[in-house]
Amino acid sequence: MALILQYISDMQYYMDKFGDPRTNPWFLMSSPFPTLLICLSYVYLVKVLGPRFMENRKPYELKNVLILYNFLQVIFSAWLFYEIGAAGWFTGRYNFQCQPVDHSKHPQTMRMVHACWWYYFSKFTEFFDTIFFVLRKKFDHVSTLHVIHHGVMPMSVWFGVKFTPGGHSTFFGLLNTFVHIIMYSYYMLAAMGPHMRKYLWWKKYLTTLQMVQFVGIMVHAFQLLFIDCDYPRAFVWWIGMHAVMFFFLFKDFYNQSYSKPKVRARSPQPETTEIKDITYKNGSLKNGFSNGHTNGTFARARTVLPAGN
User: Fold this and answer.
1) Bridge partners for 69 per DSSP
2) Could you tell me the residue range of the domain that residue 113 belongs to?
């Protein structure tokens, strides 16, 4: 126990010594342990506690809640995209090839630092994607990819806000918030009901956009391995490898959902009726998206044969 306490004390000393003094006193920034605890609690809630709570309860009807939630996420993502751009990337102050961290308290610099913290905070609001699945008893949608994506991101972003708020790594946030504007717009439309189905033909392209996002992040981060830039090499690998991991996870989903040949089952009787069995989850079609990823296909058809067969 003494060794553990000493290890925690040494880690806290390191955080205080090398962390950015501008963000150190901000909410949840002084230590990584509160964020880690929240992330672990999220995993326990959606994988264990939530399913137990809902085991003998009927699914909650959350249509209006989902519409409102996804609308607010669109607004929040749009604001973050604007702030990250207006604080650097849209102004000519930021260089796409190499952008060191500005440690000053210049108003424009502090605007970016604040945007970084709010981007970190947004990763907690995305937990509600999964919580709504659980409350609606859509346990099959709480996939490994979904939980990894949501559970890892707050902790990953925390290190950036703690040590390098601003600079090269904020390109990640710029692309990610742009994708989230489109993604949560999709969820909001889908949450409105089956009459919106005809407007949701572009789900496949949203998955493609997610993968393009990660390729862009990889290229932007790893270029610093080949040029001289005053930006921490550790964060180049940190950001780049996250992009690599999520790219292949999403690519695997894409291959399973869209690249597999469709096989029709042969039936000895003529088909008479085809029913599209589509249900909804967090504003997206069943087996549709959750933060850009899914567990299956857009819809599945059930064939109804004549009576007596």
Assistant:
1) none
2) 60-304
In a domain, 21, yes or no: no
Classify 272 as helix, strand or coil: coil
CA distance linking residue 206 with residue 200, whole number of Å: 10
The single-letter DSSP state of residue 106 is -
Q: How confident is the model at residue 304 (pLDDT cuts 50, 70, 90)?
A: very low
CB 175 within 8 A of CB 217: yes
How many domains does the chain fold into? 1
CA end-to-end distance (rounded Å), the chain: 69
Residue 41 in domain: no
Q: Is the pTM of this model over 0.90?
A: no
- Write b or e for each residue in 166-200: b if 16 or more Cβ atoms lie within 10 A of its Cβ, otherwise e: bbbbbbbbbbbbbbbbbbbbbbbbbbbeeeebeeb
For residue 132, how many C-alpha atoms fall within 13 Å in the half-sphere facing its CB? 24
- Residue 31 domain-assigned? no
Asked if 119 contacts 177 with a C-beta cutoff of 8 angstroms, the reply is yes
- The span from the CA of 182 to the CA of 108, in Å, is 27
**Are residues 187 and 45 in contact, defined by beta-carbon separation less than 8 angstroms?**
no
In the numeric block, which tokens belong to residue 199? Answer: 């407007």
Within a domain: 30: no
Is there a catalytic annotation at residue 149?
yes
Assess contact for 43 and 181: CB atoms under 8 A: no
Q: Can you give the pLDDT at residue 120?
A: 97
What is the enclosing helix (H) or strand (E) of 220? helix 203-222
- Choose the catalytic residue: 141, 146, 149, 220: 149
What is the average per-residue pLDDT within 196-215?
87
